[in-house]
């Protein structure tokens, strides 16, 4: 009987305590409530500041699977996968598939991309072997357009800006609603075009430098690391995809003859890039040039 009573009293006491606690919270003074709210707000801020996307479960699983990736990498090589027509240099640990030279895995697109340059968040797509030329052309012509627009609208911008400055004078100017909208639109247009010309221009120049060197944005980091490593050993790094500045541009733009500068560069063209993105033999005219240099 006593045992049964204690069995019933236990949960009853617990419920009572919970009710008292709830009642206490309702009756707690405003100062305490304010402190509790600040504490919760601080916790949210701290979590937001210290949030790390690399601390997620995906990263933990990847790290845990690293030995499996290593096993796959080595066992597949041992079985001879990859010793086929495709010139492979490694195995993609995510796709578990042979990966050719200059190919990199994009974690956003979740696939391997031939001659991957970078993942562009503006295009929501990867920039690689088949669209690198389009990407560069877009950046270059967009920059030119913005520079033209900023330069061409400079006088209009100055007039509109001077007019806006008189809005708050006494007596107020007699501009109509349409004129005021035109002034503001011109100022907005000039600032927008100039900002885009600066930002996109810097990106275009950076890509032009990389193309002149015959490397992609990813290869820039890899080659720099390799250059330092070999330098420490007293050796010189040589980029195998660098055929010389002008030839790099010709290969990149797909210019085989002089006429192509007009038909393939200045005019819109849908020609495919050199090679299939798997093997990286230089174009015949580059190979012929280097052979003649060797002969000399
Ligand atoms: Zn991959
Ligand atoms: Zn991507």
Automatic annotation (TrEMBL):
Pfam families: DHHC. One of its GO terms (cellular component) is membrane. Its main location: membrane. InterPro entries: Palmitoyltrfase_DHHC, PFA4/ZDH16/20/ERF2-like. It is a multi-pass membrane protein. Keywords: Acyltransferase, Membrane, Transferase, Transmembrane, Transmembrane helix. Residues 90-221 form the Palmitoyltransferase DHHC domain. It catalyses: L-cysteinyl-[protein] + hexadecanoyl-CoA = S-hexadecanoyl-L-cysteinyl-[protein] + CoA. Belongs to the DHHC palmitoyltransferase family. PANTHER family: PALMITOYLTRANSFERASE ZDHHC16 (PTHR12246). This is Palmitoyltransferase. The gene is ZDHHC16.
């Amino acid at each position: 009987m006593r045992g049964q009573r204690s069995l019933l009293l236990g949960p009853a006491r617990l419920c009572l305590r919970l009710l008292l606690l709830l009642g206490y919270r309702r009756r707690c003074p405003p100062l305490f409530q304010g402190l509790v709210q600040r504490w919760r707000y601080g916790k949210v801020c701290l979590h937001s500041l210290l949030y790390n996307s690399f601390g997620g479960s995906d990263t933990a699983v990847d790290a845990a699977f690293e030995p499996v990736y290593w096993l796959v990498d080595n066992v597949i090589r041992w079985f001879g996968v990859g010793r086929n027509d495709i010139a492979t240099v490694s195995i993609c640990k995510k796709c578990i598939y042979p990966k050719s030279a200059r190919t990199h895995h994009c974690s956003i697109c979740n696939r391997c991309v031939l001659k991957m340059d970078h993942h562009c968040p503006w295009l929501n797509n990867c920039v690689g072997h088949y669209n690198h030329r389009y990407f560069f052309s877009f950046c270059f012509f967009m920059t030119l357009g913005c520079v033209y627009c900023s330069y061409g609208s400079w006088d209009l911008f100055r007039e509109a800006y001077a007019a806006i400055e008189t809005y708050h004078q006494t007596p107020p100017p007699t501009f109509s609603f349409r004129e005021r909208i035109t002034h503001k639109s011109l100022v907005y247009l000039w600032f927008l075009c100039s900002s885009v010309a600066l930002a996109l221009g810097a990106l275009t120049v950076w890509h032009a430098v990389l193309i002149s060197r015959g490397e992609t944005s990813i290869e820039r980091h890899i080659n720099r690391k390799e250059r330092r490593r070999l330098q420490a050993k007293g050796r010189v790094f040589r980029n195998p995809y660098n055929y010389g500045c002008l030839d790099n541009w010709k290969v990149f733009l797909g210019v085989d003859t002089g006429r192509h500068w007009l038909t393939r560069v200045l005019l819109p063209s849908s020609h495919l890039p050199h090679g299939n993105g798997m093997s990286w033999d230089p174009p015949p005219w580059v190979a012929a040039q280097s052979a003649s240099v060797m002969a000399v």
